[in-house]
Amino acid sequence: MAWKIGEVTRRTGLTVRALRFYEDQELIGPISRNLAGHRLYTQPDLLRLQQIRYMRLLGISLADMKPMLKDSKQLAPRLKQQLIQLRIKREAIMSLEDRLSTLIDGLESKNVSSDDLDEVLFQTMETMMMYEKYFKQSDINKIHDHGHSLKDGLSTEEAWNQWVELMKSEIQAGSGPQSRRVQELMNHWNVMIHHLTGDDDDRLQAFNDLIHNEPQARKDHGIDDDLFDFMSKASGGH
After folding, report:
1. How far is CA 109 from the centre of its chain?
2. What is the pTM of this model?
3. CATH fold for the domain made of 2-70
4. CA 117 – CA 17 distance, rounded (Å)
């Protein structure tokens, strides 16, 4: 059975121009003609056109497509490569979605005025970029998951703020970095960090690097310079 070009465009969704272009590029054909000179497409021609259309949807270039159509053995490796690229794009899109969601949550929670919006937006994006220097998006998501609550029922933010206030109280009271109470609080710090990072060594190291290397990260967590210096001494670092 054979079909004229009008019927083929209806069946494949391709334009007449595209059909002629593929024929000129020798991706399909040669196409037979009837006595009136009209092109006649056979069942194998339609199958080839569907293959071409599918490959185009996958983003495969015409240059790469031509040898693949001639030798089907080249198709699987190329499709595997295309699958990897699609997964990379998907991860990038998911990362962007997470960024936007975090940005929106941050802006809404601060309830900023239009006058302050630009400054808050800049600060929020700068903070996001800072964290992404140390963590993959998947790690950030896992930290958020672990950070909802601690074993004592407090939210991570509540427990963290409580810990900061207790440490500052010890400093004001004149306690030494190696005092029993301060060491108990440092042990509690370690428990919180291990919980927050899911006891994952890589995330734990990344979090420690973040706190040690980024003054803004310390500020975001309520740790001023005096407290950070005191913590360093309490943990044995001078």
Report:
1. 23
2. 0.49
3. Multidrug-efflux Transporter Regulator; Chain: A; Domain 2 (1.10.1660)
4. 50
Q: Which one of 9-13, 70-74, 116-120 scores highest in mean pLDDT?
A: 9-13
Residue 100 has pLDDT above 50, yes or no: yes
Tokens of 84: 């990897």
**Which residues lie below 8 Å from residue 31, measured CB to CB, with a gap of 6+?**
23, 39, 40, 41, 45
Q: What is the 8-class DSSP label of residue 233? A: H
User: Rounded to whole angstroms, what are the CA distances from 59 to 48, 63, 82, 194, 232?
Assistant: 17, 12, 8, 44, 53
Higher per-residue pLDDT: 225 or 76: 225
pLDDT at 238: 41
Domain segments of the chain: what residues? 2-70, 72-132, 134-238
Q: Confidence band (pLDDT; 50, 70, 90) for 237?
A: very low
Task: Collapse the DSSP code of 41 into the 3-class scheme (helix H, G, I; strand E, B; otherwise coil) and give the result.
Answer: strand
Q: Could you write out the DSSP letters of every residue in 167-216?
A: HHHHHHTT--TTSHHHHHHHHHHHHHHHHHTTT-HHHHHHHHHHHHH-HH
Would you call 39 helix, strand, or coil by DSSP?
strand
